[in-house]
Amino acid sequence: MRPREPLSLNALLLVPALALAAFACVAVAARHVALATAATVTLVLLPVVFRLWTRTWYRGLVLRGLGVFVLGMNAPLLLAGALSHGRVGCSEGGCPKLYLLGVLVSPVVGALSSVVYWLVGRPPV
C-alpha cells in the first residue's frame, strides 16, 4: 500500500475561493451590492495574502493574472448574450434582465479566474 500524499495548500484554498465566488454570485443575484463587493474583495485578497506568505512572486504574474481576469470577465457576458439571443422574443431587447445578470456576475467570475491562476499558476520556463 502506497503512503498517501499530503494535500497541497492550493487545493485547500480552492474550496474557500469557490465558496466565496458562489456567495458573491448569490449576493449579486439578490441585489446585495455590499455583500457581493465584500465577497469579491475577499476572493481577490485570499490568493494575494497566500502568495505573499508562502511563495515568491515571479515577473509577469500580476500582469498575467490581470489578463486572466479580463478573459474570465468576458465569459459571463458572452454566455448571457448567447442565451438571450437563443430565446424567442429577445432579439428586439426583450431580455434586459439576462444581460444585466451577466454584467453583474462578470467581475466575480473574472476575480475567480485570476484567483485560480494565482493559486495554481507556474512560472514560465
From TrEMBL:
<keyword id="KW-0812">Transmembrane</keyword>
<protein>
    <recommendedName>
        <fullName>Lipoprotein</fullName>
    </recommendedName>
</protein>
<feature type="transmembrane region" description="Helical">
    <location>
        <begin position="62"/>
        <end position="86"/>
    </location>
</feature>
<keyword id="KW-0472">Membrane</keyword>
<feature type="transmembrane region" description="Helical">
    <location>
        <begin position="98"/>
        <end position="120"/>
    </location>
</feature>
<keyword id="KW-0732">Signal</keyword>
<keyword id="KW-1133">Transmembrane helix</keyword>
<feature type="signal peptide">
    <location>
        <begin position="1"/>
        <end position="29"/>
    </location>
</feature>
